[in-house]
Amino acid sequence: MTTKHITGTYLAGYTLDPTFSKARIADTGLIAGTGFVAEASAILLNAGRIQADAPGAAGVDLMAGGRLVNKLGAAVGGGAGAVGVDNYDPNSVGGDGGDGGTGVLLAAGGSVANHGATTGGAGGMGGGGYYTGGRGGDGGLGLGISAPG
């Protein structure tokens, strides 16, 4: 089992190379942007902070399954939803806001041992309408952990 050690700051997000089956994020590690993504099954040991800030992005996306161990003091959060578009046509309603991103996405199954904080992203604010049109609906809050079932 090959392990990738992550200690730095990755503002655009981090995608684990599929040649690694394990990643260890140090307490000094920070991942933002599109969050942490593993396309192959992986184990993620997180002692740092993962806070997606791309609209609707998951904090951790273990696409092919795997396991997240979120250590005490560590944090994982999904990105906030996109803001709805303002609509300037008369009598129209603004666009709905986007849903917040999931904190941990396990679309192919897996498990989470959470000793830190795992949160979904806030829903995006709905856009405004023109004159008499209404404001679009706000997006929904992202789930803390999402797995099939």
Number of helices: 0
> Runs with pLDDT <50, length 5+?
none
Please, what is the average pLDDT?
Answer: 88
How many β-strand stretches? Answer: 15
**Strand order in space, largest sheet:** 1-4-7-10-13
Helix content: under 10%
Taking the alpha carbons of the first and last residues, their distance comes to 28 Å
Alpha-carbon Rg, integer: 17 Å
Strand percent estimate: 25-35%
Shape: elongated
Q: Assign the structural class, choosing from mainly alpha, mainly beta, alpha/beta, alpha+beta, or little secondary structure.
A: mainly beta
Provide the succession of SSEs: EEEEEEEEEEEEEEE
Largest sheet: 5 strands, parallel
Give a quick precis of the structure.
The chain is an all-beta fold. Helices cover 0% and strands 33% of the residues. The strands form three sheets. The protein has a five-stranded parallel beta sheet, with no helix packed on it. The chain has a five-stranded parallel beta sheet with strand order 2-5-8-11-14, with no helix packed on it.
Structure in words:
The structure is a single chain. The chain is built from no helices and 15 strands. The model has no long low-confidence stretch (mean pLDDT 88). The chain is mostly beta strands. The protein is elongated, with a radius of gyration of 17 Å. A five-stranded parallel β-sheet has the order 1-4-7-10-13, with no helix packed on it. A five-stranded parallel β-sheet has the order 2-5-8-11-14, with no helix packed on it. The protein has strands at 3-6, 9-10, 14-16, 22-25, 30-31, 36-38, 42-46, 49-51, 60-62, 66-70, 75-77, 104-105, 110-114, 117-119, 145-146.
